[in-house]
Design a protein that fits this description.
The protein is mainly α. Helix content is about 70%, strand content about 0%. It has two domains: about 55 residues; about 230 residues, MetI-like fold (Orthogonal Bundle), CATH 1.10.3720.10.
Length: about 300
């Protein structure tokens, strides 16, 4: 366009007015909040009603809190728990929605297809408080999971799933997948609907069956969507979430359930070490940024879909 910026804004003023509230929220809560990162480099002690003045007058300690975190005995345990549960969630949470979307696409009964899709989408709207209560009930000593395993003679006595740390990573991965699978499935279903039907018709003329059409047409067509979602999910590897770990974890499973988010909460809010918690959270954000840039660069080198 050869018109000037002011003329473009005037011509599309209503569109810019619609964008304005969202842009203000992003500036305030995403970019404005970056000033608070200074807390990670000072020895901050909060005072009521004097946050900013106290923050910028606090003693500058440089990288002291980062060194304290890296040299502490909790660093490797917290990082291990975060990465292990996140990788499990990434793998299971990426594969299951693809399989589920393909299965729904192959379903010929419209009523069943819509009913299953709607039902699978409902957990996405449930808060983690409610979801955690459902999971705790299902995994209790007399819960449905133990009853099914006992009836099938898989186990001899009920398993204390939520009191045994070795099950925790798997529980978190399956819980995250169950809660978000409906949302991810909708994204894949939208990509499937955009595939040219003539490709399937041509394959059918050539004698290709359902599995052949899925393998040679459907999955390659989903590749750009899969790569984009993978890049976004890799950026969240360390951002495991707080609610599910806090609600499902306990003192018996802390060796496996304590991740960066719960660790920062315990030291920042419960122990009042705000600067230390800020340093831990900043470390997590920096690593997440590096992961996104790295995976995006690899995807670009491989000539597949990428974010930028």
């Amino acid at each position: 366009m050869n018109t000037k910026l002011g003329q473009r804004i005037l011509a599309h003023r209503y569109i810019y007015l619609m964008i304005l509230p969202g842009a203000i929220l992003v500036l305030l809560f995403s970019y404005g909040a970056l000033a608070g990162l200074y807390m990670a480099f000072v020895d901050f002690a909060p005072q009521l009603g004097k946050f900013w003045s106290v923050l910028f007058k606090s003693e500058f300690v440089g990288l002291r809190w980062f060194r304290f975190f890296f040299s502490g005995q909790d660093f490797y345990r917290v990082l291990r728990n975060t990465l292990a549960s996140s990788f499990l969630t990434l793998i299971i949470g990426s594969v299951f929605p693809i399989i589920f979307a393909i299965t729904l696409n192959e379903c010929r009964n419209r009523f069943v297809k819509r009913f299953v899709q709607t039902t699978s989408y409902l957990p996405y709207f449930i808060s983690w408080v409610i979801a955690a209560n459902i999971i705790v009930t299902l995994l209790s000593m007399n819960g449905l999971v133990n009853q099914i395993l006992l009836e099938l003679n898989v186990i001899d006595k009920s398993i204390m799933f939520l009191q045994n740390g070795k099950y925790f990573w798997g529980i978190i991965a399956l819980s995250n997948t169950w809660k978000n699978m409906g949302y991810n499935t909708i994204i894949y279903m939208a990509s499937i609907s955009a595939i040219n039907p003539e490709l399937f018709e041509a394959a059918e003329v050539d004698g290709a069956g359902r599995l052949r059409k899925i393998w040679n047409i459907l999955l390659p067509s989903l590749k750009p969507t899969i790569v984009i979602l993978l890049i976004l999910n890799v950026g969240s590897l360390l951002n495991t979430g707080f609610d599910q770990y806090f609600l499902l974890g306990n003192s018996l499973t802390r060796e496996f359930s304590d991740v960066i988010d719960t660790y920062a909460f315990r030291y920042g809010i419960q122990n009042g070490m705000f600067s230390y918690a800020s340093a831990v959270s900043l470390f997590k954000s920096v690593v997440a940024f590096i992961l996104v840039m790295t995976v995006n660069r690899v995807a670009k080198k491989l000539e597949t879909s990428h974010l930028f």
